[in-house]
Amino acid sequence: MSTTNIQDLNAKMQALIEAVHLNPTPSASPPNTHPTIFFLYDFVRNSHNQLKAVDADKYAAGDNGAKNAVGEVEGRNAFANMLINDTSGKLSMMTGSNPSNPADFGAEIKAKAQILSQ
Fold this sequence. Notes:
Layout: H1 6-22, H2 35-52, H3 56-60, H4 64-84, H5 90-94, H6 106-116
Helix pairs in contact: 1-2, 1-6, 2-4, 4-6
């Protein structure tokens, strides 16, 4: 049987997406798009789309394909949390930003990312 509540995971992912999207500075939206913020926004949004593609009935029935898909999303969420809470500058290097001045996602986004990966 499944262990992840898909509806709960969906809500947590939606909350993180909205927090990143609505973050005024630095922004994931034009005209002040920050490459690191945009990368994370896009990554989490794509992960969320993967979750939405999972058939909840199949997942609840223990379907291996659905379980693997949810596991992939959970792994991506853990990676997103690691990147959002990165202080080494590696995320900035990955996104072409200044690694000595990494994007600050703020406490709200960091907390939502942490909750998502638990």
